[in-house]
Write a structure and sequence with these properties.
This protein has 8 helices and 25 strands. It is mainly beta. The protein folds into 4 domains: about 20-100, membrane protein fhac (Ubiquitin-like (UB roll), Roll); about 105-185, membrane protein fhac (Ubiquitin-like (UB roll), Roll), CATH 3.10.20; about 190-260, Ubiquitin-like (UB roll) (Roll); about 265-570, membrane protein fhac: a member of the omp85/tpsb transporter family (Porin, Beta Barrel). The strands form 4 sheets. A 16-stranded antiparallel β-sheet has the order 10-11-12-13-14-15-16-17-18-19-20-21-22-23-24-25, with no helix packed on it. Strands 1-3-2 form a 3-stranded mixed β-sheet, covered by helices on one side. Strands 4-6-5 form a 3-stranded mixed β-sheet, covered by helices on one side. Residues about 1-20 have low confidence and may be disordered.
């Protein structure tokens, strides 16, 4: 279809008439001034075969149009010479400009009256160095200040602000200009009663997304934040927050929040592939609003040749649903890797709370039952495992960030006195970092570390042991193929883990990027650390879901292995 369409498009293009525009030469000015002169000149839009009477009529306007185009830049005393001629095929107009000295600001009187007179948020605007005596006049700077003052006043709650005087006087003969700009802010409004126009959630749930307190000064940044948080909650399909000036009493302005429900039920289906687990299928179900209390149900089913699992979470929002929630979780998982086999059933409870704007803390208790086969060990473990996890993510964007990092740590463990078949304490930490360097370049780094203390290592299931190697560990080595071995040479995992990676990425073309990387580390026991090293090259495609990566990794520290292909789709942080 493409090949047959192209000749037709070319034919149509050839048959269309072409209209050459008259040539306009501008001399004496450049940059923004030259572009403004050309934009004002109506003769520049006439074609070469335009009627002579029309062309000459427009030429007679050229000097006045040029003079008008110079005034916004402060040039009121320019000397302008225009000429018009007709060549063999087209008209030619020219304008010679001597802009002269620009008009200079002489008297600048910018004042704020009313409640905003003592508001420090306006002080930087009043001290504008581009609108000071002795500075060349630029109309755009004057207009920008007026607009900024109006916006700042509205943002800060001065909802009746107006200019009592707004005047720009130009005296061309004196080469001077005077500015008089007086803003009467009126009172600063405070937040009054908050009304909710919705009936599908308990009002306390909506209130939990608001940092708006009756009696506090009105600030649009609080309104913007509330709108963003409500929109991101997945409860609402439409969010509108506005001050209701018609019901203002004194300096109190009511806030009206109009909400419409979003999709209650969501289904997701996805496919993917990685060299660790092979092709993957995923199906998800989500009920965003089980009841008026805002409870949610999230279920995820995943299947691949290596890992099959079903996980579900029942989430209950607490006092601040943005930052605190309680959840009950359940999971069934079967993993059949080269180094171990395991079947796990897990039931847990979680209490997640945002300690700051970026730090999340999760307290958990998991009850698990895991049957496993590692090396020559075949066993079943049962455990009640309390834990605490901290996680922090800061990034300029969720997908393909140019600047950001993620930092986290987890401490968990159990004891036979709790009814578990094992005793251990384990700490893990992780760090990921990305930074753009110049245009089209990024550097990515990651570190993973863990340490385990146990009474009897052989009782620990694979979910507690550490392994290394694979797409997100040490590339160039198979998935979970690295770690301590038993007497028969089987990898059985270790009590400790330390891996690190450094990657350089450069833009190639379109959404494609090239990369080079080096990974190092291993799983190990005690202090018997023998780092394995993998290095290689890769290509990435920047998809809407995140980067799709294809790497060729070489096991630098192992002469008995060859290149390994790694394919992975996932976020950078």
């Amino acid at each position: 279809m493409t090949n047959s369409f192209a000749p037709r498009l070319l034919l149509v293009t050839l048959l269309l008439p072409t209209f050459a525009l008259a040539e306009l030469s501008i001399r004496g000015v450049e940059g923004d001034i030259e572009r403004n002169v050309r934009a004002f000149a109506t003769i520049a839009t006439e074609s070469c075969d335009a009627n002579e009477r029309v062309v000459r009529r427009r030429f007679r306007k050229l000097e006045a149009e040029t003079r008008e185009s110079l005034e916004p830049f402060g040039h009121y005393n320019a000397t302008i010479t225009t000429t018009l001629s007709h060549g063999e095929s087209c008209w030619h107009a020219s304008v010679e400009i001597d802009p002269g000295l620009p008009v200079v600001l002489r008297n600048v009187d910018i004042r704020i009256a009313g409640a905003a007179a003592s508001d420090t948020a306006f002080q930087p605007l009043l001290a504008n160095p581009r609108l000071a005596p002795g500075v060349p006049l630029r109309h755009a700077e004057y207009d920008r200040l007026k607009r900024t003052l109006q916006i700042r006043a509205a943002d800060r709650g001065y909802l009746e602000a107006r200019f009592s005087t707004s005047q720009l006087d130009v005296w061309p003969m004196d080469n001077a200009a005077d500015i008089t700009l007086h803003l009467d802010s009126g009172p600063r409004y405070r937040i009054g009663d908050i009304y909710q126009d919705q009936d599908f959630l308990e009002p306390t749930i909506v209130a939990g997304y608001l940092d708006l307190e009756p009696g506090t000064p009105y600030d649009s940044s609080d309104i913007v934040r509330a709108h963003r948080d409500l929109s991101d909650s997945a409860y609402f399909g439409h969010v509108e927050i506005r001050p209701d000036l018609s019901r203002a009493t004194g300096d109190l302005v009511p806030i009206r929040i109009s909400l419409r429900p979003g999709n209650r039920i969501e289904y997701t289906i996805g496919v993917g592939v990685s060299t660790d687990t092979g092709p993957r299928f995923r199906a998800g179900f989500r009920n965003n609003r089980i009841n008026r209390k805002g409870h949610r149900l999230i279920t995820d089913l995943g299947a691949s040749p290596v890992i099959q699992g079903l996980a579900t979470e029942y989430r209950i929002p607490l006092e601040d649903p943005r930052r605190e929630w309680f959840s009950v979780t359940g999971a069934l998982q079967n993993e059949d890797a080269e180094t171990f086999n395991s079947e796990e059933q897990r039931l847990g409870i979680r209490w997640t709370k945002a300690m700051t704007e970026t730090w999340l803390r999760t307290l958990s208790v998991d009850m698990s039952n895991e049957s496993f086969n590692v090396g020559e060990t075949v066993d079943t473990s049962r455990a009640i495992i309390p834990g605490i996890m901290f996680d922090r993510k800061v990034a300029d964007r969720d997908v393909f960030p140019l600047r950001g990092h993620r930092l986290g740590a987890e401490l968990r463990g159990t004891d036979e006195s709790l009814g578990s078949t094992m005793t251990f304490a384990q700490a893990t930490a992780w760090f990921r970092w990305v930074r753009a360097i110049g245009k089209g370049n990024r550097v990515l780094a990651r570190v993973n570390a863990g340490v385990t203390a146990s009474r009897d290592f052989t009782t620990l299931p694979p979910s507690v042991r550490f392994f290394a190697g694979g797409d997100d560990s040490i590339r160039g080595f198979d998935y979970n193929s690295l770690g301590p071995k038993d007497a028969d040479g089987n990898v059985i995992g270790g009590t400790n883990l330390l891996t690190a990676s450094l990657e350089y990425e450069r833009h190639l073309n379109g959404n494609f990027y090239g990369a080079v990387f080096v990974d190092a580390g291993n799983a190990f026991d005690d202090t018997d650390f023998n780092a394995e090293v993998g290095a290689g090259i890769g290509v990435k495609w920047r998809s809407p879901l995140g980067p799709l990566r294809l790497y060729l990794g070489y096991p630098v520290s192992d002469d008995n292995q060859s290149l390994r292909v790694h394919l992975r789709l996932g976020a950078d942080l």
